[in-house]
Design a protein that fits this description.
0% strand, mainly alpha, 6 helices
């Protein structure tokens, strides 16, 4: 099964598919795909197409949204941790 996925990855890469897309399609890690396809020769046209796709407005926006989501999750985690670590404060203690 692993060898079959490796062959599929090589074929998809040769047709110009990105490593991330291949990993998603085959349900394997990007690291595995990267190792499997490192020796696959790519034409200049395919290399340029891949490069252009990674700089497209949609790709940039997807990366931005991912970053914002990660930042939101970190803030939420900090709030939950702080709330768990802070005891209630009486009015007397606030004076």
């Amino acid at each position: 099964m692993k060898l079959e996925k490796q062959r599929q990855a090589q074929s998809l890469r040769q047709n110009g598919m990105s490593i991330t897309t291949i990993a998603t399609k085959l349900k394997v890690s990007k690291g595995s795909v990267s190792r499997w396809v490192k020796d696959v020769p790519l034409s200049e046209k395919i290399l340029n197409d891949i490069k252009l796709r990674s700089h497209s407005a949609a790709a940039v926006e997807a990366r931005r949204m991912s970053r914002l989501n990660q930042e939101r999750l970190q803030r939420d985690n900090i709030r939950v941790t702080a709330a768990q670590n802070i005891s209630t404060i009486s009015k007397k203690e606030l004076q």
